[in-house]
Amino acid sequence: MALRDFALLILMCLVWAFNNILSKYVVSGLEVPPLFYAAARFAILTLVLIPFLRPAPRPIWRLVVTALLMGGGNFALMFVGLKMSTPSAVSVVFQLGLPMTVLLSVLMLHERIGLWRGFGIGLTFAGVVIVIFDPHGLEISTGLLLVAAATFMSSLGAVMTKQIEGMRPLTFQAWVGFSSVWPLAALSAWLEPGQVDIALHAGWPFLGALLFSALIVSLFAHTSYVMLLQKYEANLISALTLMTPLITIGMGVVLLGDPFGPRMIIGSALAISGVLVIALRRNQIMAMLMAVRSRLK
Prior knowledge:
By secondary structure, this protein is mainly alpha-helical. The protein has one domain. 79% of the residues lie in helices and 1% in strands. A two-stranded antiparallel sheet has the order 1-2. The radius of gyration is 18 Å and the shape is globular.
């Protein structure tokens, strides 16, 4: 890989990791309601990408359902879970996305797992269970369960995109924003009274975080990822993007004081190792599926 492209990949991972920390700050530090934050992000994305709504691939119903799974449903659960959890733990649980996508591809696309990918799936699930399980209270974190549910919705959407023909990346991004903003805005109005006043009170920090999330993360990082996928093997790029959870954990510990004890160390190591095994062993179909899924980080 060229040094310039490697530097771009590192910058892309830094953007994704910093956005995890920034989102935690918005929903917990600024107390902006998570559903409203997600709705506002998709509203900006929709406004920017309106010209790309047409032509839309058919069937429309499948496109809308897929967009909702990977957009509104995924981010709503993710932000609510993030409000209740640490960014470090969330970044580890989010690694469930790849093994979930593999398992769903077996059910829906008749993929074969194979011994090594099965081993990687087991490692990932074991690592995540260690992270989300609280041995002191014998309970599982509700927030991290919501994050796990978010990754399932995103993975299901990724598999469904394989069944949509003629989909352009920016067109899909536009439909994700357009399909997600309406239900999220309605849910926020119902469940989060006073959300507009809270956002206005948060002021410029909230606006800056919102623009960063919608434009820098969704457009810059996405475009960079697609460009790198076009130049290099998907397995290589996916493996290198495992820097994102590692950077997130480091930022979470340094900037937010996230706990980082033996349980987090062991769980993170197992989960990331499992994802690495899956990434290095998956076939062409899985490479295409994860290329689609990664566009909505």
